[in-house]
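Chapter review: from sequence to fold.
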Amino acid sequence: MASQLELPQELVAKIVSEFRNDIPTLRTCALISREFLPWSRLYLFSSVRLTGRNVYAFRGVVASSPAVAMYVRRLDMPMMASLPASALLPPESMAQLPNVTQLSAHCDPFGFRHLSPAQHRLLADATRQLTTVHLLIDRLWSLPEWAALLNGCAALTELAIHAESTGWSVQDVALQMPVAPPEDTPRLRALRISGDCKILGPLSAWLVPSGFLDALHTLAIDVLYLQNDYDAPDRRPPIVLAGAASLQVLTLHLDPPMTLSSGAGATPTCLASFPLLHTLHLKDGPDASIAASLRWLGDFLHAPLPLPTGTLSDLDIATSALEYISIDHSMIRRDLLDVPPLTWRALEAPLLAAPRLRALTFKGYEKYSIAGAPDAFAHFSSTVRERLAGLEARGVLRTLQ
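The token string follows.
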């Protein structure tokens, strides 16, 4: 019988992979033999989440064991506000993690304000290989710091930013954002923005002029508006239109409905501006009007794209790539009954002319209520199908609880 040391590496890899989620067994595997050690480390250290309990130990391992540090691919650094700046991850430690490509972090994991110019350069060199970054921003001063850092990450393809406001004012978000050098500017494939809508201003000032969004595939803007935000200029269109030429999947929060036109001569935010768009997700909050959202969708689908000559673009719903639309809105049958018939017709007419449309889905029925009548969903569903009878006959209408 073959000894453990004579086992093929493919078999060792298969054995260890069976315990990829069993940390105690993986530690045991690492002690079996040298042949088991690299495969065990692969699962033990490929994804690391730092906490107040392990951050010091992790820094010690990184400094003393370069062979282990090589295995770290994903690094998660959540909020550790109870720790001093010295307890976070210094650039020297980040520089010893050459294979980290995915980073999830609270707004200041490196102690930006305490870094020397040499440390800033070291951190920039240590993060150039990042491809995916997820950030939680609750202190706005850190956003320009992150922008300056990510401007040099040419491999970056996915960026997600969640903004937790601590009472930001208009003056607070008037940040000076750094412009990326043309030779290093990342070309994002996916951008997701959530949280306080006021984060859109500085993000637009950073991402749009630098060309970050020129090759964007997926965009999700799921931001929340407070009462004093509704009268402010709409900051969504510049970001949405910056990626319009390549965008394929778009998610928008329509409370309130997004501005379709930014003024005379401006490119309208309409389907004709998105030649590759195949999936459109629309979301709303509990206080939004389903009638307003449906009017917005009808206008978005129907509005023509003016050309400089004054003629109309030949790109319309009949030649669009649109396949899927979902409307995620807290609604009940009474809300739908209040929608004017003209709004239903304005929505259905362009969709009947969409040759690739596979599904129009209404979901979120009573999602903010505790319980409804047993037959409430059936009444809701029948109301939608009666109002959009043409789409129902075509077999593309869906209703979900």
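Two observations follow directly from the output. Residues 307-315 have pLDDT under 50 and may be disordered. Residues 1-45 form one domain.
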